[in-house]
Amino acid sequence: MKRIAPLVLLWVTLAMIAAPFAWAAMPAPAEVPADKSPAAPLAAAVSAVTGIAISPLLGAGAYGAYQWMRAKDDAARAALPWYAHWEFFVPALLIVGACAAKDALGTAVPPGLKKPLDLLELVENKTSGLVAAGAVVPFTMAGISQMVLGGKTAASGVTLATDGFAMVPVAAMDWSPILNVLTIPFGLAMFALVWMASHAINVLIMLSPWGVIDAALKAMRTALLGLLALTSAINPWLGALLSLVVLVVAYFVAGWAFRLTVFGTLFCWEFLTGKKNGFSPKETDNPMFSGGDLAGVPVRTFGRLVARAGGGFDFAYKPWLVLPERTAAVPAATLAVGRGVFVSTIVGDDDDTLFLLPPRYRGHEDELARACRFAGGVREAGLRKAWSALRELFGGGPAKAPAA
């Protein structure tokens, strides 16, 4: 399994890169009539936005390559959006291929080298997600207005066979800005939900110490993107239906994905900026994430451990980082810092994981225990059991940090 999963990931990724070129090169059958319903462009756009959200760099690169290949001549290609020019999609697909090769060779790459590469890939996924949300998605959704309201040519340069609502002249008004107000926020919201659920996979890959799990997670995500592209090519409505299923699943895991995204973002930022240098824990107010054993608080919720004036501690946090602040009492009478190999923690009476510490606390565990006057001091957690750590990573039961 360790050898097969990375190879499957590499094969699926390379197939996804080559698919738009092969598919676009195939002549379209003239006898198949185009879907002339005004809602057909919306179904195609929903599938495109969902696919780009699953993997922004691969989705935007493949989508741009497909549009470039389908353009009839140089003039049509010059009118394409920026992501459909070879100056963008060729480097984008090369980066995707390099990431796939890195995962395929993961068993041969030393862990000390692979994890920094996973961290850089996490940064790439965030950056490409922001670029897609700010440019590709609005451009795709704005194309719907042109198609529905009478534009003969979409942003992709594909000639359409319908004039949509343009057949109804209403005081010669240009309704595209009004329709953009409706379609673009819808596309951005859909993109945000799906991207956040997909980005959580990159965070899991960065935190997971097992390369075979990394390859399996990526292969599943790339296979889903390939299935979405295939169903959309066969039938836009079938692709839209699959996109709707993906969107519903992303909605139900939005809270878990959001907390994991915040955790991974802070972890990545503090690691790259060397936040631990010059950092000193405080006596009364220290930022951290909730663990799996803090009752009433979802795992990996970002907040602050606040010391009460009369003794004891509270955990103050804001749901979704913007809602009114809530407070949860820390039940343990004796707290200790568990110095782990990957992530240090704060544990309670029975070695329950109450809090997860960001990278800024690396090397400051003793200083934190002294500043907060933890009666348990610092414990060497050692290597966690694989199954227990994996369950906590995916939001299940917490991993225990046994005392030395």
In short:
The protein is α+β, with helices and mostly antiparallel strands and 404 residues long. 55% of the residues lie in helices and 9% in strands.
Give the tags.
single chain, 404 residues, alpha+beta, PH-domain like, eight-stranded mixed sheet, 12 helices, 8 strands
What does this protein look like?
The protein is of the alpha+beta class. It has two domains: 4-266, no CATH class; 280-393, PH-domain like (Roll). It has helices at 4-25, 40-54, 56-70, 74-78, 86-104, 111-148, 176-207, 211-234, 236-252, 254-273, 365-371, 386-393, and strands at 285-290, 302-307, 313-317, 326-329, 336-340, 345-347, 353-356, 378-382. It has an eight-stranded mixed beta sheet with strand order 4-3-2-1-7-6-5-8. Helix 2 (40-54) packs parallel to helix 7, helix 7 (176-207) packs across helix 9 (236-252) and helix 7 crosses helix 10.
Largest sheet: spatial strand order: 4-3-2-1-7-6-5-8
Number of domains: 2
- SSE string: HHHHHHHHHHEEEEEEEHEH
How much β-strand is present in the residues?
Answer: 5-15%
Q: Please, what is the average pLDDT? A: 76
Q: Structural class, from secondary structure content?
A: alpha+beta
The helix content, as a percent range, equals: 40-55%
The rough form would be described as: elongated
Radius of gyration: 25 Å
- The overall strand count is 8
Q: So how many helices? A: 12
User: Distance between the terminal alpha carbons, to the nearest Å?
Assistant: 34 Å
Low-confidence stretches: 21-34, 151-173, 398-404
The biggest sheet, with number of strands, parallel, antiparallel or mixed sense and barrel status, is:
8 strands, mixed
